[in-house]
Design brief:
alpha+beta, nine-stranded antiparallel beta sheet, four-stranded antiparallel beta sheet, 12 helices, elongated, disordered N terminus
Length: 472
């Protein structure tokens, strides 16, 4: 890059990790455009890619001058949201505590004594009102995300956002959702609704999903997570809280009122299924241990033979059409084949690893497998990471699961053991299983007193995901 003589040049060079998250940023200024940088500042970031917020978070930021001397370090304490930061500069420590509004934006910084250090205000798109971001004691401002005052843009992991225009700095690689026309705008921030939406990943508006009722009442879901923890063990609690974390931004009262009935309906069906899991004493369906192991091998083999462009196209279709563009055929169609010829069967179940599980829940192992394979190849990691892929199961189930259950009830074939937590845990199992064949089976989702079946399932499990089918 070469500017005209006399015009200052500003360069920002970023380095990203394998997950696409920034690990360092070098800011250079050539004030007189003579090829010599008069000002340099290097910042390195220590990131927590498994933060319970659902998104990678900066744990420590270290700034260096042109001679590679440490200028300052900023250490962040983060739970479900940012709690505090400790800055060390020239040997002087300063600890500040955050206060947020309902949008998740930082509105106040307090010292350890509780005295107000700074107050902040923003317009709808995130532009500072009444203060200069360069003078703020923290970089985490609008929507709680990091603002780079040097370039006047906010870092949202996969892209930068410019509050002055309400647009991202570069093209959205996601093709778009055919049922959501606004998703085809490649630079638009939160579907042009920044008041009700946030976009922590730089790729997907979160608040918008909640505002149309996909987000459900957190109080209802929390009750379900608690009961799952009591009945199913700590793995239920972990999966439930992991799914809740991306929705930590408080929902508006209106969204909660709209979504509450859906959460209640879904919970009713889930509690019924949980009760059945503990009370059923029938015999499980045929043993799918070998068949599922072979399924894993076939999916991995199929994926390995796809070109990079084919892999990207597959995941684009997988997410573009939602959680209806994949399945293991024998786990969604003619499910009674698993208990055919079994006396006193636990219907719609199979045996795996010496325990009995719901066929509908085990199906989600494919969702986890495919997302992990894509994540390892760097295909849309903001979507295919462990937290998001599991959370989407949670979102989809609570948005549409109750409709499916009501339809099953009307047709007289309501599944006795299908739960949101079970599907999430099998998706999570698949995500881990793709790389570790010895990963722990989610036994907390089993039909606890059902008798395992030793008769093997002899067929081959066929599958499709994002337009790809197998085995080949």
């Amino acid at each position: 890059m070469q500017d005209e003589v006399g015009i200052p040049s500003i360069f920002d060079k970023l380095k990203n990790g394998a997950d696409g998250i920034r690990t360092s940023a070098l800011h250079e200024i050539d004030a007189d455009a003579d090829g010599t940088f008069e000002s340099k500042k290097l910042t390195e970031y220590l990131n927590d890619s498994l933060s319970i917020t659902g998104y990678s978070q900066v744990l420590r930021q270290t700034d260096y001058d042109a001679e590679s001397n440490v200028v300052q370090t900023i250490t962040n304490i983060i739970g479900h949201q940012r709690i505090s930061q400790k800055t060390v500069k020239n040997g002087v420590e300063q600890e500040l505590w955050f206060g947020f509004d309902g949008h998740g934006s930082t509105r106040v910084l307090m010292d350890v004594a509780g005295a107000i250090a700074q107050l902040f205000a923003y317009d709808a798109c995130g532009q500072a009102i009444g203060f200069n971001p360069a003078d703020a004691l923290t970089e985490f401002l609008y929507s709680g995300e990091q603002f780079d005052a040097k370039i006047g843009q906010q870092y949202l992991r996969q892209r930068y956002y410019d509050p002055s225009t309400g647009r991202f700095n570069r093209l959205d690689p996601f093709f778009g959702n055919l049922s959501d026309p606004q998703s085809f705008h490649k630079y638009l921030y939160t579907h042009a609704d920044p008041v009700n939406g946030i976009d922590p990943s730089g790729m997907m508006s979160v608040g918008m999903a909640c505002s149309i009722g996909i987000g459900i009442s957190l109080s209802t879901v929390s009750a379900g997570v608690f009961i799952g923890h009591v009945l199913g063990g700590s793995s239920w609690y972990h999966a439930g809280m992991q799914a809740l974390s991306p929705f930590a931004v408080p929902l508006s009262i209106g969204a909660s009122i709209i979504s509450l009935p859906f959460g209640v309906l879904t919970s009713v069906f889930d509690y019924r299924a949980l009760y059945n899991k503990w009370s059923c004493t029938g015999k499980g369906g045929k043993d799918a241990t070998d068949s599922l192991q072979k399924l894993r091998e076939n999916v991995i083999n199929t994926w390995s033979h796809l070109s990079p462009d084919q892999k990207l196209d597959t995941i684009t279709k997988l997410y573009g059409y939602g959680l209806v563009n994949w399945d293991v055929t024998q786990l969604v169609e003619n499910k009674n084949q698993w208990t055919s010829g079994v006396a006193n069967p636990a219907e719609d179940t199979l045996t795996y690893g010496g325990r009995v599980y719901a066929v509908a829940e085990v199906n989600y192992v494919l969702w986890g497998l495919v997302n992990r394979l894509a994540y390892e190849d760097g295909i849309m990691p903001w979507l295919t990471n462990r937290t998001h892929s599991s959370s989407l199961v949670f979102t989809y189930r609570n948005a549409f699961g109750w409709i499916i259950n009501l339809d099953q009830l009307n047709e007289g074939n309501l599944n006795d053991f299908e739960t949101t937590g079970g599907k999430m845990l099998w998706a999570d199992y698949g995500w881990n299983w793709a790389m570790d064949i010895h990963t722990t089976i989610p036994t907390g989702t089993s039909i606890h007193y059902a008798t395992p079946n030793t008769m093997p399932f002899t067929g081959t499990l066929s599958y499709n995901f994002g337009g790809v089918s197998g085995p080949n």
